[in-house]
Write a structure and sequence with these properties.
The structure is a homotrimer. Chain A contains 16 helices and ten strands. Chain A is α/β, with parallel strands linked by helices and about 400 residues long. In chain A, α2 crosses α15. The radius of gyration of chain A is 21 Å and the shape is globular.
């Protein structure tokens, strides 16, 4: 992914005519930089009924409250701003018109158009989720083809442990078997990173220290004797993290560990997903050289910014947050950039299920960053060259450096 | 309360000539929608001296620090922006001039003018407070008449329990007596909701589970043996909540439970009023169908937004916060709307003691919402029809639906 | 420090021609009010190499992450905005050009120019830090002379206790010896305040109550038996705070106690520096009359605002935060002013090591406040006289009153 040779000035403010709609509504600002989406998921290939579509517009896994619509939200506004033009409708088309148009084009054509409009150069896909709203997700290679983007994989740690448990190993073998299973998963996926959903399974308030094999075996005995499925034992979750850290640290360029922090679905308890709670673990990981990428973070993204400033191995993500905060994304991105070093902030969409969320994520990021940097320049806070530099860093250069992508 | 037939476009940006003052300062934007104030209190009928007036301009119950004035605050600026015109003074009149004018008009005329200027259609009044600055509050029917608004009552739970304790029941009878007292209070008030001040009495960090009658009886024995008054025992507070939830759930349209969250007077400890701490209780209440209305929330209003997004029975309030944050209300309202579904955000003033706080609350909400939606439209983030829809939802439609008001 | 006789109107919006650079970039708005910096540190006199300079641009004490520059941050942008003009370069000069120019002028001349450009009238210097990036800091009198400002001292409590420990007293004598040592330190420095770094040594989550002499002696025995140096025992830290409170309370105008809260270097754990955790201690100190100045606060500055509103003896600081948040300082200052009474907010730079940080701190404050108040006036939220009044309060009048400065 070579960097573009020349960058027009003033940067981040330019609004090419070609991205204006006839009715004067702007589609995503076409900043001439590639985007590297450092955290995303697959999309549903099948047609979705209105309820299934709406269910993917919220972090809730419950039906909407009586009398309310999932489109009545900041994310709903963002979707109606950026997606209708990709399907040939004016921006802000109403939900019924949008859903009708999507259905008439069919899911394949809609998906193709939406992913193409997102303009992503490369995707780092967390392959740990395999369905959304009860429908299977497209495999990574099909996603790559539709999006016209390179795809690399991120291995979700809890899936590896649960797949191991499903093979019913002896508890005494758990530590070695987990190491082997994880190493195999990384090899098979040619993974660029691993990911933890500790925030969902327990909360980020874990002790810092490594788990001994003896402790892990004891905890594994309990887990393996229980009902199959979900790994939620805090000792095994921590043991899994350290097993991953040790494997990641072996590489010449250590593999990053991505961690969900901040808001998500109601399976988590928000204050226990405050990334500051991870501080003891962050300190303990530091000597290994394994980078920690704190995903999402909202509403604790200022805490993420501080952690990224003071710990060299901590990085900050923009995904999910900029999509969900809709018209407010400019400010929220600004809040992250208060303390986070510009060399450590990484773009992502965290798109999941709906191809719309790829376009929304990319457009929200491009628009929020361009607006923010335009505001900063108008206020005299930075020069055009600074805006261009910062745009390159966040859009792709930081992620390319961190993940060692060519 | 019928919805207006037609809504002028562009909505939320219109500034009718009739609301401009001769000196060019705008009084509250006259959006042509009614306001339903879903959480407020009575006002003092008597004249107040300057110190008593000032004491009602802050959440503190202490005298101001030496050398400082209670008017030197964001709320003080908001009061001086919106209230002087209602008493025939220019906006931003200085405190001494304002207080002198108020005194010369007399409290009855000032109250009438201020409440009329607030332009509220209906008030849901928490009748649990009966005085402010040592003066009695007007009863609900007199408030209704002065404000030209319908009034409905919200029953404060802790008052019911303390009134029961004052009748010295046997501890063994506490669970049944409390159920009866609460049912009677709801009937007598023809209540539209109940309210808890758990945040003041203990903090929101309570276990989720119901309290057995045996536990409640044990705790009641301690409470009834102690000095009369304030209910602060965490077991009894939780038992009271569950008693209320069970009564509220019996209705065809379950009665909402309002909970104080976030900032308030120094009787509470702020981080223990973080609404995320309520999550276990929120999860436990979900199957009952009883809506939970998280009041205030600031500075944890983004947490409120997430809870309202992921739990169908959780609703978010704007009261107190928009008044107290003065010139910053536009941004703070924007922060709440980042994650909170637009169908679940409810206007209130939380006015208490001063009729000024009704006008300030209404004007701050109207102005903040109109400014925010104007900004969003100018930035291309939503269409005029979206702004009109969102204004109707927050101003009255969400509350009318939630409380089943005709 | 007399108040200026007349204040031009409209205030906080004026941009005199004399502060415009030829290239149209504005240097700090020259509001005609003096600044009283209520919390700062010494600067390095020696030349600094690029790495040592960069190390003072971040709260991290680690080397920057591979491939990143410490100038790529909000603080880096602020430095490049405000400092190059003081050294004869255009604003936004690139880092290499700036460092080269600084080196060619030499550290003495650069320091003189930067401190003079900051335009500070008086400095309250925490003398507890004696070096930065391995270089000694200028003593307070030399700093005063270079800055053209009066300097008064703030005594750092932990230093006094550690110096006492280095003299190896008997544990049984600890309480009396500490009282004597602290009283002597206050006399010697003619101190205007004391300061605690409890947030670094333990966290703000301490019990409220005083430590008995017996408890202190027991804890001192452990501390004195251990390796020399850092005081981190929570009992001794609390005993130190109460010893200080009791000494501060004896004055006719009680000496304020400054407390580090919120972000800082990686020695602290962020969520344990939430100032709301101090609430029990704040309540316990209230009867003594000793003011508590909550420094920094970010990202918990809204919590600081609430504490300052509801507790008469709590004050709020702007330092460190406005420098580090760079282009976002306007908003962050606005957030503090949502609940904090305007009579209790105090300007500071928290400058340390680099004379640049004095200029950045002063310029960021002046610019953020002027911009905020200009925005408020344009939006009709306050009158020009209010903006002038608020500027005087925050810039010097609140601090002059609190610290009893003539």
């Amino acid at each position: 992914m070579p960097e573009p040779d020349s960058v027009p000035e003033p940067y981040g403010v330019r609004e090419p005519d070609s991205v204006r709609e006839p009715d004067g509504v702007r589609v995503p600002d076409a900043l001439p930089v590639p985007l590297l989406d450092q955290h995303c998921h697959g999309v549903v290939a099948a047609d979705l009924d209105d309820d299934a579509f709406g269910a993917l517009l919220t972090e809730s896994d419950r039906p909407p409250a009586p009398g309310t619509s999932p489109f009545d939200s900041a994310l709903g506004l963002a979707l109606r701003r950026w997606c209708p033009p990709a399907l040939g409708l004016p921006a802000h088309a109403d939900p019924a018109a949008y859903l009708a148009r999507r259905r008439s084009l069919g899911p394949a054509e809609s998906t193709r158009r939406l992913l193409a409009a997102a303009g992503l150069r490369a995707l780092l896909v967390d392959t740990g989720l395999t369905e959304a709203s009860g429908q299977p997700l497209l495999p990574a290679d099909e996603l790559a083809s539709l999006a016209g983007a390179r795809v690399r994989e991120v291995v979700r740690l809890e899936n590896v442990a649960e797949a191991l448990a499903a093979r019913a190993p002896r508890a005494a073998d758990w530590p070695a078997a987990l190491r082997d299973a994880l190493a195999a998963a990384l090899r098979k996926a040619d993974a660029v990173a691993v990911k933890s959903v500790l925030a969902y399974r327990h909360g980020l308030d874990i002790p810092a220290d490594r788990v001994s094999d003896a402790e892990a075996v004891r905890a594994a005995a309990g887990f393996l004797a229980g009902p199959a499925g979900r790994l939620a034992d805090p000792v095994l979750l921590r043991h899994l993290l350290w097993t991953a850290v040790d494997l990641c640290a072996r590489r010449a360029l250590p593999l990053p560990l991505q961690l969900h922090t901040g808001f998500g679905d109601p399976d988590l308890t928000l204050h226990r997903a405050d990334p500051s709670l991870l501080t003891p673990f962050i300190r303990a990981v530091e000597p290994t050289g394994v980078p920690l990428v704190l995903l999402h973070g909202y509403p604790y993204h200022r805490q993420v910014g501080w952690l990224a400033q003071v710990f060299p191995h901590v990085y900050a993500d923009t995904g999910l947050t900029l999509s969900h905060t809709g018209p407010r994304a400019v400010t929220v991105l600004g809040e992250l950039l208060e303390l986070a070093p510009f060399g450590k902030v990484l773009f992502s969409t965290d798109a999941y299920g709906l191809p719309e969320l790829y376009l929304v994520g990319a457009a929200q990021f491009r628009h929020a960053l361009a607006t923010l940097l335009g505001d900063w320049q108008r206020a005299g806070a930075c020069a055009p060259a600074d805006a261009a530099h910062l745009t390159r860093l966040l859009s792709f250069a930081n992620a390319r450096r961190l993940y060692g992508l060519g």
